[in-house]
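Write out this protein's structure.
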Amino acid sequence: MKADSLGGSAPVTVLAGPTAVGKGTVSAAIRASYPEIYLSVSATTRAPRPGEIDGVHYHFVSDEQFTRMIEEGEFLEWAQVHGKHRYGTPRSSVTAAARDGRPVLLEIDLAGARQIRKTMPEARFVFLAPPSWDVLVDRLVGRGTETAEERERRLVTAREELAAESEFDVTIVNDSVARATRELADVMGVTRPAQ
């Protein structure tokens, strides 16, 4: 699928990186500071974390709903992440934003980024990296939303995700959310935050 087959000419930017690197935090800052950027809201089968709102942070769906969405071709990409929950990017909302000429940001995992690379090679691919491995571990442990077993599974996955950095067009180090957000907006060609 080419970007123009989405119904518009607005560029699509894919943001990916290891677990706990701050993709959601940077995406939330983009949403707050750059309302002209359309931030795709993924569907997931996992339960909401404290403070997450359905339809804002994710579309929280059952396994049965997710399977139906796959069968009906409703996703641009989808994957099972950390061997447990499924995540996917709904096609319809991305298509509508592209048709309206809005810059589109997809915040997705590595497997999803690889699927988008195959179907939409003209998209921009941005890797969000931690300042160091120790910082990444501290962020994962510090958020306190996973069990010890889940953290270990995510850290194994994170090592694999970090090794994929060379597959991306641009790397942004998330040592400051404000700076990482500005850099991402610059990469997307949106350089003036809303006032």
